[in-house]
Amino acid sequence: MNKQAIFHITDIPYTYAIDENTLAVRLKAAKGDLKNCDIYYKDRYDWVNPFNINSMDLKKSDSLFDYYETSLQIDENRYRYYFKLEDREGNICYYNERGLHEELIKPYEQNCFQFPYLNTADIHKVPAWAKEGIVYQIFPDRFCNGDKNNDPEGTLPWGEEVSTTTMFGGDLQGIIDKLDYLQELGINIAYLTPIFLSTTNHKYNTCDYYQVDPSFGDVKKAKELVEKCHAMGIRVIFDAVFNHSGSDFFAFKDVIENGEKSKYKDWFFIKSYPVDTEKINYITFSNNVDTMPKLNTHNPEVKEYLLKVAEYWIKEVGIDGWRLDVCDEVDHAFWREFRKVVKAANPEALIIGEIMHESTSWMRGDQMDGFMNYPLRELLLDFFARGRITGQKFQEELAYVSSLYTDEVNSCLFNLIGSHDTARFLTDSKEDINKLKLAAAFQYTYIGLPYIYYGDEIGMVGENDPFCRRCMIWDESKQNVELLSFFKKLNALRKTEKVLVYGDYKDLSSNKNMLIYKRTLGNEEILVILNNGSEFSELSLESTEGKYVDLLNDKEISISNTIKVNGNDMKILKKI
Amino acid sequence: MNKQAIFHITDIPYTYAIDENTLAVRLKAAKGDLKNCDIYYKDRYDWVNPFNINSMDLKKSDSLFDYYETSLQIDENRYRYYFKLEDREGNICYYNERGLHEELIKPYEQNCFQFPYLNTADIHKVPAWAKEGIVYQIFPDRFCNGDKNNDPEGTLPWGEEVSTTTMFGGDLQGIIDKLDYLQELGINIAYLTPIFLSTTNHKYNTCDYYQVDPSFGDVKKAKELVEKCHAMGIRVIFDAVFNHSGSDFFAFKDVIENGEKSKYKDWFFIKSYPVDTEKINYITFSNNVDTMPKLNTHNPEVKEYLLKVAEYWIKEVGIDGWRLDVCDEVDHAFWREFRKVVKAANPEALIIGEIMHESTSWMRGDQMDGFMNYPLRELLLDFFARGRITGQKFQEELAYVSSLYTDEVNSCLFNLIGSHDTARFLTDSKEDINKLKLAAAFQYTYIGLPYIYYGDEIGMVGENDPFCRRCMIWDESKQNVELLSFFKKLNALRKTEKVLVYGDYKDLSSNKNMLIYKRTLGNEEILVILNNGSEFSELSLESTEGKYVDLLNDKEISISNTIKVNGNDMKILKKI
User: Fold this and answer.
1) N or C: which end of chain B has fewer CB within 10 A?
2) Nearest chain A CA: its distance from B505 CA (Å)
3) What are the structural domains, with CATH classification, of chain B?
């Protein structure tokens, strides 16, 4: 037994409450090392009755580890447990709070791992609606110009080439005008990048957190948008830029004007006075972005100010949640307060962090519900677009990434393949539409929320900022309508096939060019085969015999020994 | 390289802020596997400059792992890093967010681990005074009867044999009367088990959180105690029993009386009505302890009530902190609120959890400062009192336990060898005073707060409750005065030798019967040798040559090749 590979801790994500009466338990071991993994458990105050025993399930494997899981239920919700591990050579180890032992000291209750009490207050439940969500990200200046009267000075004709400073007049009325399009597409969450008063086209340098930028509309128009979305079953997420303000935010302007005498001087991190936006003698977002002074979210006044903003848009305008810009550079203490305020304003509000890296310290249920899953995006690019990794490696890395979070968090990740901060997928895939389709098929058949960056669904291309922010193409003759109808199909499937939302995910035998996996929920089963190679492939898969319906063309097929999949093609097969 | 043994995560305790400008980083690897462990780091937005490089230090080892540590400082406090590992055969591995690699893909910045921003709000600082603390635990009914007028009915003569229900009339005046004793002993933190109105001698079933039990005194007397302690440099910690109340707590009485109509019915977990203290149809502490109904700390009214209690005793009476009874069965959300209220009432207040097991989920800096270190107690018993483990195993298990927490938490643990909930150490050691001395010497020369359970210092014995709660022996002829003077000596050393408080701890070559370790702080160095065997031992230790003063007898000794230590004896040697 590789003893150094064995790991468990009585903390998230290795132990956590699933619901009021159920405790999830995980353990990892060296890949292929164990034959059996059992958990012995009972009430922490019970010194009399024998332990209950669960056999733990091998749920997934990465390149180094196997991950075992089970869930426990006992009457009093106070858990004491240890593990019995058996490797493939028959060696047995017991694992408790004091480590690995060939034999356990009696009484076995001693030195057990303990989950002292499952308190309902500590259960992380994401909003139920979010799990069934399909996200559509809108960059408002570039989506649709619905009101020519509010176009900012210098607005360019729709569709001209973009630069970092160009404005195109897209606005909230434009989004309202296109709600039929969104509904027909089949998404149910609209995430808008910032819409508050700001000098730039992206509006990540906020001037006024309470005002909609007049070139986009006003608060009334925002309400109208939200109401109309809700009437169509679409939820609306706004973008909270709380790491920094704009340099024309009233408080920063006051510091510029009044220097050390400003009562707002501790709202920012000023290095010296007078404040100078050319020398940039204050902390900013990223590398000295003078227009984005970092906010001191540790300052109670700043905290109060921003939390009121968070509450205002939920209560006043009815938005369904916040996406949190650069939230990993803001303190955890702030986000804990933020969660309380937001969930008090609307217990069903969703909180999604923009964190591009490992996110464990934000994902314990006390801060965000989920995050923008950039690690998955990297894998999708590496496998489908860049051809850098095999299908097997893809599954292994995916298993590792998901092993870092609870099932609840994993069910609530925004599984993007691109955003306003990245090149478009189709550009990374050298405009190979099939690769985009394969990646999208994965998004829609995996755990977490499928996510479309506006325009990807009609085949838009573009390198990173500014070219990934081109104007949405509304001229149908210039849209890839076959791709669009493929996305519509996927959206429809995601809605009708709950197994794609709630089912277990199991890699079957992904290989160099293929992802082969199964989603199961109760008796339902969907088998997915994504052939990323250019060659036709005939697969023989164990225990996949049976009748299926191909959900992409509604044809029935029967699998006896082998399944055939064309190069750069896919099967999404539902067992019947 | 044992790849499965390599572990790092960008979360506590593997990455955390030490202060406003310093990030601590840890990594574990298989014991003895690595020759070198380097960290490459720089600003997360810096794509231009080369990485800085730190060589990580091997800090400690348990039975399976080596633990490497370093601390990083960069200007902007936004960290990006990866590791370069070299094993003893010269194999090299790079370790970043996407795992272990034989070669890194360029640019190396890609896929780095990220600590996005070191925010001051997230730094866990325990009160500075606590680190230099020496705790004395008092069980008030059994410490000293200073006021005969408030003796409860049925008070027994001091020193008679105890039962679970006997009362002896100990009180706050008694503690005040013995402050000279405590000061002479040399402790500087008095921790009192509960003193609030309650029917039992232990008072863990609270009737009124605002009233001192009249058999102990009143609020005025509590204030007098705290003031007199403070005047003598002694801090006072009270016991917060917030997991459950007493069954005669006003709210529970109301539920008994008014059943489902009681406005306090959701303050508890009632299974059916009417509430019946014989059938016990409500959730209690432990196994159906009818007098201790569990409080619903998720209920905002309960939360508000208890948090006001927490604040009251700090603001009104001036206590210096709380020890939290059964805090591991109360929700994390409650303790986060509790921390805010307590630290707002007094930023220097100390919060110590009673958690007898792995405590990681409470020790992230958002809840408690430290905990009662029962895992260390088990090790001290197993090695010194029970002879169950070797010195080497002791060091390995100690290394494992301390690897679970940040240095800040480790510096703030209550390192007890006994309490009112355990047998006394001297009973477990079969009344071998030498074993108690050795264990105490370890407490005083290790990281964290030495802790005396009243009476241990004069040689009191007793099995678990009720016998560990016997009356304090004040008759000097019945005290072990030699032991008492040994404890006085240890207390004095802990105060004069800051290296014992703040120094690094390094196991040298502990073996079957011996603990041999070094504390170092700057140029200061203390070498400790605890011989748990019955035989005289002559040790040869590498690089310990030099002149020392034996701090236990102030004699100078010179070590050339070997050091001699008698059986069941010790050396605490300061390098001069």
Assistant:
1) C
2) 21
3) 3-122 (2.60.40.10), 134-240+299-371+414-500 (3.20.20.80), 244-296 (3.90.400.10), 502-575 (2.60.40.1180)
3-state secondary structure B167-201: CCCCCHHHHHHCHHHHHHHCCCEEEECCCEEECCC
B residues 344..373 contacting A (CB < 8 A): 355-358, 360-361, 366
Nearest-by-Cβ selection for B298 from A121, A286, A334: A121
- Output phi, psi for B275, to 5 deg: -70, 135
Say how many C-beta atoms besides its own lie within 10 A of residue A489's C-beta: 17
Residues 6+ apart with CB under 8 A from B355: A116, B327, B328, B362, B371, B372, B374
Biggest CA pair distance of chain A: 81
Contact of B527 with B571, CB cutoff 8 Å: yes
Quick check: B281 contacting A, CB < 8 Å? no
- What's the average model confidence in pLDDT over B476-491? 98
Tell me which residues of A are annotated as active site: 325, 354
Which chain B residues have a beta carbon less than 8 Å from that of A7? 7
Summary count for chain B: helices (H), strands (E): 14, 28
| A97–chain B Cβ distance below 8 A for any pair | yes
Chain B residues inside the 8 Å CB shell of A287: 45-46
The model's pLDDT over A266-302, given as tens digits with 9 standing for 90+, comes to: 999 999 999 999 999 999 999 999 999 999 999 999 9
Of B402, B399, B236, nearest to B321 (Cα)? Answer: B236
Neighbour-count burial of B63, counting CB atoms closer than 10 A to its CB (0-12 exposed, 13-18 middle, 19+ buried) = middle
A269 inside 8 A of chain B by CB: no
With a cut of 70, which residues of chain A have pLDDT below it?
A: none
Asked if B336 and A336 come within 8 Å (Cβ–Cβ), the reply is yes
**What size, in residues, is chain A?**
576
Asked if A7's CB is within 8 angstroms of B357's CB, the reply is no
- The answer to whether the Cβ–Cβ distance between B45 and A287 falls below 8 Å is yes
Handedness of CA A212, A214, A216, A217 (dihedral sign): positive
Count of pairs with CB atoms under 8 A, one residue in A, one in B: 144
Which of B45, B65, B119 lies closest to A331 in CB terms?
Answer: B119
DSSP A449-498: EEEEETTGGGT----STTGGGPPP---GGGS-HHHHHHHHHHHHHHHH-H
Cβ atoms of B184 and B225 closer than 8 Å: no
Query: Would you say the pTM of this structure is higher than 0.90?
Result: yes
The CA-to-CA distance between both ends of chain A, in Å, stands at: 42
- Closest CB to A2 among B4, B63, B100: B4
| Closest CB from B4, B113, B122 relative to A5 | B4
Q: Which chain B residues in 51-70 lie under 8 Å from chain A, judged by CB atoms?
A: 62-65
- Exposure string over B453-485, b if 16+ CB within 10 A, otherwise e: bbbbbbbbbbeeebbbbbbbbbeeeebbeebbe
- The sign of the torsion formed by the CA atoms of A309, A314, A317, A320 equals positive
- Beta-bridged to residue A80, according to DSSP, are A42, A114
**Chain A residue nearest residue B286, CA to CA:** A45
Cα distance between residue A487 and residue A187, in whole Å: 10
For the stretch B101-149, pLDDT in tens is 999 988 999 899 999 999 999 999 999 999 999 999 999 999 999 999 9
> What is the ipTM score, two decimals?
0.96
**Packing angle, helices B481-496 and B433-445, rounded to 10:** 10
- Determine which one of B109, B141, B325, B507 is catalytic: B325
Closest CA to A529 of A518, A544, A542, A521: A518
Asked, as a colleague might, if the bond just before A13 is cis with ω within 30 of 0, I would say yes
CA distance B82 to B87: 16
Q: Decide if A336 touches B, using CB distance below 8 A.
A: yes
* Chain A CB contacts of B326 below 8 Å: 116
